[in-house]
Amino acid sequence: MSDMTPITVARGDGIGPEIMDATLRVLAAAGARIAPEFIDIGEAQYLAGYSSGIPPSAWDSLRRTRVFLKSPITTPQGGGFKSLNVTIRKTLGLYANIRPCVSYHPYVKTLHPAMDLVIVRENEEDLYAGIEHRQTDQVFQCLKLVTRPGCEKIIRYAFEYARQHGRRKVTCMTKDNIMKMTDGLFHRVFDDMAAEYPDIETEHMIIDIGAAKLATRPERFDVIVTLNLYGDILSDIAAELTGSVGLAPSANIGEHVAMFEAIHGSAPDIAGKGIANPSGLLLAAVQMLVHIGQPEVAETIHNAWLRAIEDGVHTAELYGSLSIGKPFGSMDFADAVIERLGFGPEKIQPVAYAGHPVGSGSGGRPAERQAAQRLNLGQVVRHPPALKALVGVDVFVHAPAVSADFLAGQLSALVTPAFVLQMITNRGVKVWPAGFAETFCTDHWRCRFVAANGGEVTHADLIGLMQALAARGVDFIKTENLCTFDGERGFALGQGQ
Ligand code: ATP
After folding, report:
1. Is domain 388-489 annotated with CATH 3.30.70.1570?
2. How far is the CA of 268 from the centre of ligand 1 (A)?
3. 151, 310, 357, 363: which is deepest, by most CB within 10 A?
């Protein structure tokens, strides 16, 4: 039928098939207009020889439907299997990871009953580019890559998400007091974009104090946008604080494809028993329905689910004094949600994706908390390239058991008319000229050469420098060009410079 949206569905491993069957049962009963296409990914595919756990036919389906509802999968132990999630995320450009973290007090134990926040995590860049090298005997390196289009995409997403979900505040977290260029770019883009959203309150926090505040007063946050690594850590802290890791969904959104899943794993310890809680996947499916433009179905399911939780319909791991009857199995839980379709919670605030209050409860989300159909993200604007000038080079040198002064003497004696040695750092700290004897030095030296005439150098000059270094037996391991962009320095000073 034409109004059916095709979606790709993976039933996964462990408890995956059980929670997927329960989820699809609720979706069908609620009238979700979806046409599932099932793919096999995960353990069996790894063992069949697909090193990333996903066969070519599965990619075909994903590229056709562009919407993926995924159960947890098991990565076999050992054997160097690649993470399926990382492969899917990177291959399909799923740049935004969205994690709502909500408390369901008193039905789920938590110290933070008023917590209701969403973490918007950049998903492709930062230290996760996976570019790592052992450079010397002692030193290992991981490159942190942050791009302007990457920052613009994720920050735009956070603001649009906030606006369309009626959220009032976006908090940006970085460590730009230390990483002035990479994290500094993220912060700058945030500040620039904030001006386009005067209806939304904005703030910036340094990640360490931000994480501390999140852990102690999570209710003060609404939407948090941050870089990949910080987001990874923050979203686990936040999910844990709600006390309901087993209930939490996650969405991975790209320009072309989106993937929806529970945050928990395949729970092999309870697989096949029919007792797993399908809530994380069901709430992921709710996010999916909003994404594909069926907010009214999403809202009906979400409110029925809230009502079930409130009524004491609890699976075994939530079972407690507020639960009714015996612990519900996965399918019984699904049926209990289905019975409540059309009803909302009475004590917990109902959700309103479709822009109208539901349920018989008091309160309700603010009227402006309206539907997010597909977000209005626009196109990433490609800025005209800045005028670049090459003004020097950092040469990284492997030199064990030498002093900075000795190395400086050796390098200063090079015949390189184009360059002068300006400084040497060790692990970023200036050790020449005028270093401190107390600074601990490794075998890894960054030697900064700048244009002797105070202006520009050429690539041919760089090659001349490399040849001079090689002729003197200097073990250079890498170079980084020093450039200015529209006259602005494109490199950090050494600490102490
Ligand atoms: P992974 O590395 O894949 O995340 P894991 O073992 O670290 O796996 P989970 O698979 O999420 O983490 O399981 C952690 C614990 O939570 C297990 O005891 C599991 O039974 C329980 N658990 C996870 N998901 C559910 C669920 N949906 N319903 C009930 N219990 C669950």
Report:
1. yes
2. 8
3. 151
Enter the tokens of residue 371.
């539907």
Say yes or no: CB of residue 267 within 6 Å of ligand 1. yes
Question: What count of Cα atoms within 13 Å lies in the side-chain half-sphere of residue 256?
Answer: 10
CA angle centred on 384, ends 379 and 390, rounded to 5°: 135
DSSP β-ladder status, 419-426 and 444-451:
antiparallel
The residues near 50 (Cβ < 8 Å, ≥ 6 apart) are none
For 125, 126, 178, 281, 444, the CA distances from 144, given in Å and listed in that order, are 8, 5, 13, 32, 19
| Residue nearest (by alpha carbon) to ligand 1 atom 14 | 267
C-beta 269 within 6 A of ligand 1: yes
Q: Is 368 exposed, middle or buried (0-12, 13-18, 19+ CB in 10 A)?
A: middle
pLDDT of residue 272: 97
Taking the centre of ligand 1 as the mean of its atom positions, its distance from the CA of residue 263, in whole angstroms, is 9
The verdict on the CB of residue 345 being under 6 Å from ligand 1 is: no
> Domain 116-237, what architecture?
3-Layer(aba) Sandwich (3.40)
Crossing angle for the helix pair 330-339 and 295-310, nearest 10 degrees?
110
Buried b (16+ CB within 10 A) or exposed e, 141-179: eeebebeeebbbbbbbbbbbbbbbbbbeebbbbbbbeeb
pLDDT of residue 373: 46
Kindly report whether the global pTM for this prediction surpasses the value 0.85: yes
The structural domains of the chain, with segments of one domain joined by +, span 1-95+242-368, 116-237, 388-489
The tokens of 471 are what?
């002729």
CA-nearest of 353, 222, 229 to 286 is: 353
